[in-house]
């Protein structure tokens, strides 16, 4: 099996470009939520938190950690500045990235649930008590912490890694020594617990999303008879935007799915394949920012109005300059 212990130049360049573009797009989206979103209390808070999580996730992904796989060995290293210049262990960086991704998905699920309750309170149907909300907040906070703790336990001790490489992969012993900051994994009870938890969490979140979405569309029919057309349009636009954002979250999970497929199938020479999935996953904040802007009527109208005004000003200036030029 052939393993490259140097990152492909193209993916590092790609990460830096995506980081710069994503940061700009994320800042614009956050500002739109802060200044142009309708006053909806909890919903506005969680949709803002979700956009901030997107910005944080891509910065971790493309600058802070930059995870690089060493498949088919179940190992990897980080090229980001925290790993290279602060020597923070790759295992901790990857664990923090996974916990951040879980937190991000939780934010989106909460947005669905709170939008559901906003509609429910308007038509007085399927309203739940605040006790349920605060229990959800408790799970919302503790779940990423549990994920990080379990993932940290699932890894091999840092001081045992070199010996493990010497015993199992002696042909790569010198290459691993040159890395200095890497993480190796082997299956243990903590890995099994993490896998079961991930499957269970996916089932719970997926089921919650399906149930909430179906009920929202049922309630929208009743809502149309009780609110004005403009208010109904805002509710419908918000639900549509959330659905599109949920769809784009598939980009966020693509690298994880690719890792699982590679591990289960045992493919060799898969580093390029995994790097491509990492690159696609890094595009999530950009795609999400475009989706949020284009599917939320308040944001879309504001952006188009600004662009139209700017375009008119440029046209007017060019026209004035052309008229001011002397004619032969």
TrEMBL record:
Protein name from the UniProt record: Serpentine Receptor, class I
Keyword Transmembrane helix: yes
Top-level taxon of the source organism: Eukaryota
Pfam family, one: 7TM_GPCR_Sri
Keywords attached to this entry: Membrane, Transmembrane, Transmembrane helix
Record carries keyword Lipid metabolism: no
Transmembrane segments: 12-35, 47-64, 89-112, 132-151, 187-217, 238-264, 276-299
InterPro entries: 7TM_GPCR_serpentine_rcpt_Sri
Organism of derivation: Caenorhabditis briggsae
């Amino acid at each position: 099996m052939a393993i490259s212990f140097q990152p492909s130049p193209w993916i590092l360049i790609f990460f830096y470009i995506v980081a710069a573009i994503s940061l700009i797009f994320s800042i614009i989206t956050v500002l739109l939520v802060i200044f142009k979103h309708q006053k909806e209390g909890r919903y506005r808070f969680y949709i803002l938190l979700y956009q901030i999580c997107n910005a944080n996730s891509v910065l971790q992904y493309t600058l802070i950690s930059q995870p690089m796989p060493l498949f088919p060995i179940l190992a990897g290293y980080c090229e980001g500045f925290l790993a290279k210049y602060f020597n923070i262990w790759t295992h901790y960086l990857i664990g923090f990235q996974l916990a951040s991704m879980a937190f991000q998905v939780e934010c989106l699920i909460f947005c669905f649930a709170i939008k559901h309750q906003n509609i429910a309170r308007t038509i007085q149907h399927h309203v739940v008590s605040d006790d349920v909300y605060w229990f959800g907040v408790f799970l919302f906070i503790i779940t990423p912490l549990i994920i990080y703790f379990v993932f940290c336990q699932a890894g091999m001790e840092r001081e045992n890694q070199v010996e493990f490489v010497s015993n199992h992969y002696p042909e790569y012993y010198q290459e691993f020594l040159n890395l200095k900051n890497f993480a190796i994994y082997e299956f243990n009870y903590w890995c099994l617990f993490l896998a079961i938890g991930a499957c269970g969490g996916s089932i719970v979140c997926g089921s919650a999303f399906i149930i909430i979405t179906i009920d929202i569309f049922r309630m929208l029919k009743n809502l149309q008879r009780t609110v004005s057309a403009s208010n109904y349009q805002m509710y419908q636009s918000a639900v549509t935007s959330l659905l599109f954002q949920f769809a784009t979250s598939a980009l966020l999970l693509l690298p994880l799915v690719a890792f699982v497929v590679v591990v289960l199938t045992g493919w060799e020479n898969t580093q390029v394949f995994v790097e491509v999935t990492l690159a696609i996953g890094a595009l999530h904040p950009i795609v999400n920012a475009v989706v949020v802007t284009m599917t939320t009527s308040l944001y879309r109208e504001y952006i188009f109005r600004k662009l139209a005004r700017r375009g008119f000003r440029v046209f007017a200036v060019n026209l004035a300059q052309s008229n001011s030029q002397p004619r032969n």
